[in-house]
Amino acid sequence: MSPARAALAAALLALLPVPATAQEIDRADPVATARAALVAFRTRDLEALSRLSNETNRETFAQLLEAGPGSEMYDEIFSGWQVEAVDAWDGALGNPRYDSQGHAHVPFAIDEGEWEGTPYTDILTLVMTDEGAGWGIEDINSPDLERFGDMAPTP
C-alpha cells in the first residue's frame, strides 16, 4: 500500500467510543448507529438488528427472528463476504461519507487484493438511510478507494 493510501486508511479507521447499550444509541449519529449495528450483526442479535434497520430491512429481520437460526433465511443472511468482513471487524470505524442519494457510508474495514492481475483497494462500508427518525441499516458495500473518496464528507 502506498504511503498516501496508508494515511487515508488510518484516517478512515479512527476509533470512536462505544455506547454501553443499544438504548443509548444516538440514531442521529450514523457512526454510533453503525457501531451498534456491526456489534449486533457480529453477535447475531436479531432483535437489535431489526431495531437498527431501515424500514425495508426491519421487516426482513423481524421475519428472520421468527425463522431463527438454522433456517434457510438465517443461513442466507449470515453467509458470504459481508458476514466474513463484519466477523473480522476490529472495532474501528471511520468518518462517514455520503453518496448522491444521501446514504451514509460508514467505513469499517479495508479490502486489498488483486483481480485479474490488477491490484485494488476497497473500503468496506455499512450503508445507512436516514428515514427522519434516525439512521437505519441498508446494506454492506465495498466501494473502491476512489469512489469512496469522491463521496461527500457531509450529507
What brief labels describe this structure?
155 residues; alpha+beta; Nuclear Transport Factor 2, Chain: A; 4-stranded antiparallel beta sheet; 4 strands; globular; signal; DUF3828 domain-containing protein
Description:
This protein has one domain: Nuclear Transport Factor 2, Chain: A (Roll). Helix content is 41%, strand content 22%. It has seven helices and four strands, in the order H-H-H-H-H-H-E-E-E-E-H. The protein has helices at residues 3-12, 30-43, 46-52, 55-67, 72-77, 81-88, 145-150, and strands at 97-98, 104-115, 118-130, 135-141. A four-stranded antiparallel sheet has the order 1-2-3-4. The model is unreliable at 10-22 (pLDDT under 50).
